Amino acid sequence: MSLIKSVRGFHPKIGDNCFLADNATIIGDVIIGNNCSIWFNTVLRGDVNSIRIGNEVNIQDG
């Protein structure tokens, strides 16, 4: 199961029909649009600044 964690009162918002890999990490002020895929070993860390991901975006590990 993906790690989804609140930070400083911000909780990630995940759109409809998104795939989150089992070991993806999503923290803080992160908004993910609809129909996105967040793949294995990715870390989206919105602890200092916000992260906004539009619709139909694919985020993969480096």
UniProtKB/TrEMBL annotation:
The record ties this protein, via InterPro entries, to: Hexapep, Transf_Hexapept/Carb_Anhydrase, Trimer_LpxA-like_sf
Pfam families attached to this UniProt entry: Hexapep
Name its species. termite gut metagenome
Q: Which UniProt keywords apply?
A: Acyltransferase, Transferase
Query: What Enzyme Commission number(s) appear in the record?
Result: 2.3.1.79
Instruction: State the name under which the record lists this protein.
Output: Maltose O-acetyltransferase
Q: Name one GO molecular function term.
A: maltose O-acetyltransferase activity
